[in-house]
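User: When convenient, might I ask for sequence and structure tokens for a protein?

AI:
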Amino acid sequence: MTASYASIRPLLWLVSLAIFMQMLDSTIVNTALPAMARSLGESPLQMQSVVFSYALAVATFIPASGWIADRFGTRRTFLVAIILFTLGSLACALAQSLHQLVAARVLQGIGGAMLLPVGRLAVMRSVPREDFLRAMSFIAIPALIGPLIGPTLGGWLVEVASWHWVFLINLPIGVIGYFVAMKVMPDHYAAHRSRFDLRGYLMLAFGMVVLSLALDGISGMGTPHALVMLMTVAGLAALVGYWLHAANSTAPLFSLALFRVPSYRIGILGNLFSRIGSSAMPLLIPLLLQVGMGMSPMNAGLMMIPVAAAGMVAKRLAVKLVERFGYRRVLMTNTVLVGIAMASFALMSPDQPLGWRLLQLALFGAVNSLQFTVMNTVTLRDLDVGFASAGNSLLSMVMMLAAGFGAAAAGSLLAAFAPLESHGATAALHATFLCVGAITLTSTLIFWQLPDTGPEPKQIEEVAE
């Protein structure tokens, strides 16, 4: 049963706090990675598993979060999510080795996988229909603010305290959120309980995890080549197995009927391949600024502000651009611009004027944000009501999976170009930027398949990143 908008304001603030905590944590870590590496005795160019493990855990557990909330109630599920995320943050701060830190990030990711979708679900089932867009816009604000302040806050905490505080900062937020949730989180259940597609979920989760580990294993972290090949084949076999299972199941986790919608099919695949390169950048840019150019963590974090700020501005331009040129031309042109912007970081050097450096970061932030906004819109725009929930969940899973792939790909490329370090500290990083730019450019082949039709601009305004 829905309530008045005024009565659900405390719920909106609670969900906003949860989203802020999750989005902050996804960006605050990046500027602290070199400090973590020094503390744990690891190479700063081989710390991608800290980012990769969190993103993979979130991607793996997102498909189950909706069913868990329907089965056990939004209130209980949300409280458990806060506990897991907070305990995971504490375990990260107490980690004494990279393996311990990665394990703690997985625990944190399991909690994070339920925080955002369950919070959104509670809002969707509580807010009056006429206030739905207003409420969703309100809780989308933290998703913009978190990445804006995360890198700078992370750099500042490293300098004034230690890297442990990028995780310890979650503890008071988690405790406050738990007690507020006890009072304001409604306890919604599904009207009709459906059977969970456990077989399909296990195949899909196994495929995602094993393929991600295979990609991460290429980075030279001691994984034998034979094991990498075995994991790759096993992962692909699991995904094919899920495809066959979904074709014959009456209630699959994600119906293959979703892929009969051309815009969704193209959009979901374009999201996956385009985001691999984009997801490598939040890891690579702080490394370039700190390891390659000798900046302090605080200054490296400040340099990320133009990326986030320009991204917020660019989202407003999406409607006008698509209205004038159409989805296909905007995505194909902008994908090329994103790839070039990524590759341009190979030209960044310590003697580069500060103004040019800030402009380069801002331009990358603008085209990258525009890419996300238009990709998400074209993916979801043609889904009917019956497929909207499953389609959105699959998109969320693919976004996090691509984030994990991006971090793993960055680590693998840095390991492959490690011999270039004899030519300078930034040589391996510069070569990696060229490669992630090329990876992004390949997704133009996917967006090329879009029909050259006009837009529905209002839809873009309603799609949140």
